Amino acid sequence: VGAAAGVGALRVVYHAAGVVSDGVLGSQSERTLAAVYGPKVHGASHLHRSVATLGSLRLAMTSSVASLLGSSGQCNHSAASAWLNCLASVRSARGLHGQSSQWGAVAEVGYAARHADMDRFIAMRGMRPVSSELTMHAIGAALFGACATVMAVAPIDWRALGAASRRYGNGAASSFLRPMLTRFGKRAGDASARSRDKGHGGSGALATLDDVLEAVQSVVGVDGVDADSPLMEAGIDSLGAVELRNQLQPFAEDPLPATLVFDHPTARLLHTSLQRDVAVGPALAA
């Protein structure tokens, strides 16, 4: 930065560094936090200090939509990205240029493109991949100041996001998005209500074994999972266990534990546990 500034040609610095180290909260550590915070938080902080005397320089940063919507197993990534958003706002308040783009999964290149199941993962949360055309447009806007201090680059399917919010709980959508979900997600809500009327997906609705298998298959992304096969062998990892617990929560009277899949390691055992939970819940209430 110093060498380029001396030449007089430096106008924009674009901070795009990032590392992920995913895992449920109980498995996170100082090491995994440092691995994610290093490139994003410490890297951006260093750039901020390095260009402090260059008042006209633009500093644009790559954040993540995880800081807007949250993301299971990515508390460190969400927090680091939120820090970048705050840095951009602080710079703006001081009369300096600061811009943070909350990126969704970009199609064709990068992390999401290298992971085949990412499209399914984000679709379940009401989002679509960011196209190459939109990517270039957003980068241009961030570099040349034609956008808000903090902007999200994430094509959203509002009805699907509304359904995800109901399926996973209020963590699927932050509070300022909910008025838009009310407006754009009405049809999804009506469909969800009809499903509950039929006995599927309502709080305490009796889950069938097929319901459990469908949830398992949606998490692992394959069909034909055997009801008596260990879920870990079917492809459920620690993040998948959280995902599966969230999908099964509507079938339970009480909050399901984070250890649900480890305590009941097959689809049939999960089904038995859910039936027992629904049966015991009303008895305790009585």
TrEMBL record:
The record lists the membrane-crossing segments as 134-156
Q: Which GO biological process entries does UniProt record here?
A: fatty acid biosynthetic process
Which UniProt keywords are given for this protein, alphabetically ordered? Membrane, Phosphopantetheine, Phosphoprotein, Transmembrane, Transmembrane helix
Q: Which GO terms describe its molecular function?
A: fatty acid synthase activity; phosphopantetheine binding
Identify the SMART domains for this entry. Answer: PKS_PP
Location of the Carrier domain: 203-278
User: What Pfam family is a match for this entry?
Assistant: KR
- Entry protein name: Carrier domain-containing protein
